[in-house]
Amino acid sequence: MSKPGLFGRIFGRSGPESDAPAADAPSVAESPIAEFPVEEVAVEEVIPEEAVADESAVAEPEAPAAKPGWLGRLKAGLSKSSDRLGRGIGDLFTKRRLDDEALGDLEDLLITADLGVATAAKVTERLAKTRFGQDVDADEIKAALADEIETLLAPVARPLALDPSRKPQVVLVVGVNGSGKTTTIGKMAKAHADRGLKVSLAAGDTFRAAAVEQLKVWGERSHCPVFARDTGADAAGLAFDALAQSRGRADDLLFIDTAGRLQNKTDLMAELQKIVRVIKKQDETAPHDVLLVLDATVGQNAHSQVEAFKEIVDVTGLVLTKLDGTARGGVLVALAEKFGLPVHAIGVGESAEDLRPFEAKAFARSLVGLG
Ligand SMILES: Nc1nc2c(ncn2[C@@H]2O[C@H](COP(=O)(O)OP(=O)(O)OP(=O)(O)O)[C@@H](O)[C@H]2O)c(=O)[nH]1
Ligand SMILES: [Mg+2]
């Protein structure tokens, strides 16, 4: 038996719908991805008030009476990661000279906390430059580490830049199944709509019926229209028509959701590339952003996902979700170091307030468990 290739491992990741065909399986005849040109069916514009089935699938958790602010949520969300790092540093440095052995131990700890070999080496090297031979305690190490991590992250901490001259700015959202694409779109749409921007959503994941319903729920929540078609419709055709309507509305933003899983890598590649191609027929500068949504709980596997998607589309920025569900939050630092792609936002929970623009300092301090 040959081992699955990179794409097989990445796109075959079992998610909520693990009954789907295995990656690299041959295309089935009834592939839902019809060929362009666009069907002659008008895009159904879903008015936010419209009743939507199965809200439970995307139910926003009840907010607690006294909600902590964003910093509190960030710290709570990163607590699994910071417990690991903070406790590890506490164990290593009660009062210890920062010698080669201590630096080696710290480097090992950073690697096990998913910061990656290169980042761990870089951070310890920099620490050695300023502190080598000194007696240090855990808090000093945490503070120094947070500073180094912040320095590494600062260049990539860039919120999604909005260009008001684009009507709309087209944001294509990609990622493996279950990574948090639809939720991220919903949260971002709500944040921008709440600020008074005109936002539309295109349900480009025509592969699963539930995906369309899920986006419609977010459309209601954020009072944004959702352009959708029936399951199995041509995603590129839908995207094309959605853009036409969004242009007609002079929207500020159009988010296009996509399927994370198709029959195989070739199908996924073909579908995403076709979406890009047809969008360009209307606006050759679009899509203006291609966001890759990554589930932080996959740890180092996130690297292969970035590589895989960069081969398919021109990824312009990252969103890391589910940082609350993992002790592997350090992977964000490793990704920043390796790819240098902007990290636009991070998710530390399921509700709309749990996705925020990524800030280097707050993240770095929370990651090492500093108040
Ligand atoms: N805890 C937590 N859960 C999240 C976060 N972001 C998304 N989720 C949850 O992750 C699950 C999958 O999210 P979706 O947005 O449906 O993922 P998707 O990429 O659209 O998935 P497909 O449509 O199957 O490709 C949902 O239950 C979300 O509520 C986060 O930051 N933290
Ligand atoms: Mg989805």
Q: Bound small molecules, which ones?
A: guanosine-5'-triphosphate, magnesium ion
Q: Do you know the CATH topology?
A: Rossmann fold
The H/E string reads HEHHEHHEHEHEHEHEHEHEHEEH
Shape: elongated
What class would the helix/strand composition place it in?
alpha/beta
Straight-line N-to-C gap: 51 Å
CATH class: Alpha Beta
Number of strands: 11
Residue share in helices?
Answer: 40-55%
Tally of domains = 1
Number of helices: 13
What's the story with the biggest beta sheet?
Answer: 9 strands, mixed
Low-confidence stretches: 1-66
| CATH hierarchy: architecture | 3-Layer(aba) Sandwich
Strand arrangement across the biggest beta sheet? 1-6-5-7-4-8-9-10-11
Can you describe what's shown?
This protein is α/β, with parallel strands linked by helices and 371 residues long. The protein has one domain: Rossmann fold. It contains 13 helices and 11 strands. It has helices spanning 6-11, 70-77, 79-92, 100-112, 117-131, 138-153, 181-194, 209-222, 235-249, 265-282, 301-312, 331-339, 360-367; strands at residues 44-46, 96-97, 135-136, 169-174, 199-202, 226-228, 253-256, 289-295, 317-321, 343-347, 355-357. A 9-stranded mixed beta sheet has the order 1-6-5-7-4-8-9-10-11, sandwiched between helices. It has a two-stranded antiparallel ribbon with strand order 2-3. Helix 4 (100-112) runs antiparallel to helix 5 (117-131), helix 5 packs across helix 6 and helix 6 runs antiparallel to helix 13. The radius of gyration is 22 Å and the shape is elongated. The model is unreliable at 1-66 (pLDDT under 50). Magnesium ion binds at residues 181-182, 205, 211, 257.
